[in-house]
Amino acid sequence: MNKRGLSRRDFMRGTAGAAGVTLAAGSILLEPAELAASARSVPPSERVRFGIIGIGMQGAGLLRTAISLPGVECVAACDLYDGRREVAREIVGKEIPTTRRDQELLDNKVIDCIVAAVPDHWHRQIVIDCCNASKDVYCEKPMTHAVSEGFEMIAAEQKNKRIVQVGSQRTTSVIYNKAKELMAKGAIGDVCLVEAWMGRNEPSGAWQYAVPPDLSPQNLDWDTWLGTAPKVPFNPLHYQRWRCWMAYGSGVAGDLFVHLLTGIHHIAGLTAPPKRALSSGGLYRFKDGRDVPDVLATVYDYPNFQVFMRVTLNTETPEITRFMGTRGMLEIADNVLTHTTQEGLDHGPSFLSYTWPKKLRDEYLANWRKEHPVEAGIKTTVESASYHAPPDYNETREHLWNFFDAVRTRRPVVEDASFGNNTSIACHMANQSYFKNTAAVWDAAAKTIKG
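Predicted structure:
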């Protein structure tokens, strides 16, 4: 016996005669329907022709992935930097019209839809212009740069009966959809707490991207790129590393929180922003002139549970999302979903009875055993199952396919403007709490954040 007396473990082992615990584990390979569907051939009459606006790091990746899909063709590209328009032609592998003017793509009757991968401060204008021009649009995350923009974008989507897909991908993921299915079935009971975190540890992960050596006002339309942002002299760092400044981006929240929030909102079936957000963090390492933190932690209050979220750009850590419920836990890590069950019941008498007089304790233990009969050799099983995505699974590919298939069939997408708006608002709440050093409260009636 240790100095503190009988330990809880010793007590449970010595007095309860409680059932032992074993672990039953299973590994399941998931097969997403979208992956199978995208492998089929598409007749020429159903071909989708798209134009792309913005061929930077994300845009180039989207372009490569999109043209690999059957029945999908890129027929035009737009970027304000000449070098990126050349990259678009190289990726497509043939000569296509390219321009600095996005209106040329919107006026092009051959184009069915637009893929837009531009800085956050341009999202509103491009989405609304696309909808008004009767073009469906895939817009990169986060959907908005300011809270008010989202409701304008939703109105344009609905008024013009357009398809708007926001590019956070998790809503299409076979892993997140399996978690959503398990949640809906009550597999882990009532969820009271969610944790989500991730970390990077490299300059490129903190947006210190290399700048094209030829970048200049001669081959970049700087004034147009600034758009609604404050007018400043040409600055190649602002152009290439725009996520470092709130004038163009949304910092850690808009770049990385949005992925975690998308997964959480999708799995939990949330259709509204959180009620409150309280953030803390700071700029500890990348003091390169940026005005956003490199560490951000936020506590979100939702109606039925709380979310703890943390992102750092200074240490590599696994990305993990964990739903904790009264009947178990769902954890997504390294693209694997693990479901562990818990009974949430007492399998032994109350430890506190050890502090009672012997007569009371003996009576209590006798009654407890009478009320909790355990057959000899019967064990309580803690069940655990893990779900894996197929080899070479690509959730961005599935997300783009969902968009292009919706353009073709007019079926709803999995991440429309309303969904994207809710996750964007949560990002803005995290930022407002951080910058104003106060709790950010969502006022649904006023459609604004108060603090």
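Summary: The longest strand covers residues 21-29.
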